[in-house]
Amino acid sequence: MNATDRKLRKLHVVTHGCQMNVYDSARMADILRPLGYTTVDSPDDADMVIMNTCHIRERAEEKVFSNLGRLRVLKEEKGGEMMIAVTGCVAQAEGELITRRAPFVDLVVGPQAYHRLPELIAQAHRKQGAVIDTEFPAEQKFDHLPDNAAPQGVVSFLSIQEGCDKFCSFCVVPYTRGAEASRPAASVLAEARRMVAGGAREIALLGQNVNAYHGEGPDGKTWGLARLLAEMAEIEGLERLRYTTSHPNDMDDALILAHRDNAKLMPFLHLPVQSGSDKILAAMNRKHKAEAFRRIVGKLREARPDLALSSDFIVGHPGETDADFAATMDLVRETGFALAYSFKYSPRPGTPAAALPQIAEDIKDARLYELQAELRRQQNAFNAALVGQTTPVLFTGAGRHPGQIAARSLWLQPVVVEHPTALTGEIHQVKITHSNPNSLLATLLSKEQIAA
Ligand code: SAH
Ligand code: SF4
Ligand code: F3S
Q1: CA 53 and chain centroid, separation
Q2: Which stretches within 14-127 are classed as H helix?
Q3: Is the pLDDT of residue 325 over 90?
Q4: 125 and 257 share a domain?
Q5: Same structural domain for residues 109 and 247?
Q6: How far apart are CA 12 and CA 15, in angstroms?
Q7: Number of domains in the chain
Q8: Within 10 Å of residue 136's Cβ, how many Cβ atoms?
Q9: Residue 88 CA to ligand 2 centre (angstroms)
Q10: Residue 368 and residue 363: Cα distance in Å, rounded?
Q11: Final residue before a domain boundary, out of 324, 355, 380
């Protein structure tokens, strides 16, 4: 393509699903920017819309087709002059179905093929009917990431690991994201440095199984996550580190001790356990028992006493009895979570658990209700216990209302502070004055107050 072909185009990206999709959406915009695409907030005046989709539960998939219905109307209003691309996990899993149910879609691109977008768009311009690319190419996606990433802000996300080899009975991720692959450490560190130069003070490393990270180090050796985090901590100007999502089986001692030894690693960990019943954990193919989770939590809290935990739970997996569910409730009450996500089991096509006899919907509803009530109680209690405490927060920008600024705590809570200037990127001590279910209010302390 020469410079005269590079006319200005408007790109609108819609993102569903996990943080990895958020990261990928930003990378797609980065890839298309040199081609003249600038991003816009609405599909109304876009020349191209990318819908980056999630396949994790049935509802996520339904959302794709209902959104596509709206885009079809818009495309017709524009006389067909709007390219529609479906990317992400639904594209990977249901590529053929999309082209049948939504023939107005121009491009279907799986999560491993984003770097080929420019070429695929050119093909779509030449071709009648949809262009589909859902191959798992032999070359690594991570080898093709652009190095012109637009800054994400004070809190930034960085993908370091893709895919999953664990094949939990309920989950589509191994099918949509392919085999586990880790990005070389040098490439992670280079991107982290660029992020910090662009204003990032906190970086969360992302992967579907981020703690299974085993990337090639600059020394030619394989680095685990603890090693990578230690190296990240050396980056000047980077103040806070997190990583998500982790599997209990990959929580090795080196990583547990990083929570004691790495001062920049935040005392908050998302560690999905899914169930407290050994029978259901086995049926889920999680390959560990409830006791192993308890043991890991014990070691983590020993390493970092102020560590707060978050988790994911599924209720109503095939085979789950009242006694199994009671075991989950026991584990929740015993462990204590600062935050947790809980879902009704949703049968996903092609996964082993979908072929088993299913639990009735009303039973799933009742279990979810009971579990969420307890998790909400724990979250409220965790937040309330911080009232009156002094703690450092990272300021992230303007607040929702004039005179307020936004920050986040060590434990990922949004913190609202009354203050006239934004202090963006700075870390200061505040005193927590009030807790809400999903946020905290605080006042900024002066140096004298902190000294006292
Ligand atoms: N890699 C992460 C999970 C990614 S999916 C891990 O192993 O923990 C995020 C969460 O969605 C899962 O932890 C699980 O709780 C939930 N989930 C996945 N598949 C689901 C399904 N079929 N039905 C309901 N919830 C599901
Ligand atoms: Fe899905 Fe299990 Fe892999 Fe997590 S570990 S992505 S739940 S298969
Ligand atoms: Fe959804 Fe794919 Fe993420 S299924 S949760 S977008 S990996």
Answers
A1: 13
A2: 19-32, 58-77, 88-101, 117-126
A3: yes
A4: no
A5: no
A6: 10
A7: 3
A8: 14
A9: 16
A10: 9
A11: 380
CA distance to 124, 145, 198, 212, 443, per residue, from 28 (Å): 17, 9, 19, 25, 39
Residue 394 CA to ligand 3 center (angstroms) comes to 28
Q: What is the pLDDT of residues 132-190, one digit of tens each?
A: 999 887 667 788 888 888 888 999 999 999 999 999 999 999 999 999 999 999 999 99
Domain contains 385: no
Closest CA to 173 of 252, 62, 255, 57: 57
Ligand 1 center to 207 CA (angstroms): 13
Counting every residue, how long is the chain?
Answer: 452
Q: What is the rounded average pLDDT of the residues 211-228?
A: 97
- CA-closest residue to ligand 1 atom 5: 56
pLDDT at 89 over 80: yes
Q: How far apart are CA 360 and CA 318, in angstroms?
A: 10
Containing H/E element for 197? helix 185-197
> Does the pLDDT of residue 439 top 80, yes or no?
yes
Q: Are residues 205 and 228 in the same domain?
A: yes
Which CATH number fits the domain that encloses residue 26?
3.40.50.12160
Rg, C-alpha atoms of the chain: 23
Q: Please identify, by atom number, the ligand 2 atom nearest to the C-alpha of residue 245.
A: 4
Q: What is the pTM of this model?
A: 0.95
User: How distant, in Å, are the alpha carbons of 156, 197, 200, 249, 394 from that of 240?
Assistant: 10, 15, 9, 25, 9
Residue the block writes with tokens 């082993």: 352
Give me the helices (H) in 262-406, please.
278-283, 290-303, 322-335, 361-384
pLDDT at 27 over 90: yes
- Phi, psi (degrees; rounded to nearest 5) at 51: -110, 110
| 267 and 324 inside one domain | yes
**CB atoms < 10 A from the CB of 59, how many?**
11
- What is the whole-number distance in angstroms between the Cα of residue 179 and the centre of ligand 1? 17
List C-alpha distances in Å: 270 to 125, 365, 389.
43, 24, 23
245 preceded by a cis bond (ω within 30 of 0): yes
What is the per-residue pLDDT across 341-398, written as a single tens digit (0 to 9) for each? 999 999 999 999 999 999 999 999 999 999 999 999 999 999 999 999 999 999 999 9
Domain end position, chosen among 133, 149, 167? 133
Pocket test for ligand 1, best of 172, 314, 351 (most atoms within 8 A of CB): 314
Ligand 1 pocket, 408 CB below 6 A?
A: no
Structure-token match 């009742």, residue found? 366
Q: Residues with beta carbon inside 6 Å of ligand 3?
A: 17-18, 20-21, 54-56, 88-89, 172-173, 176-177, 208
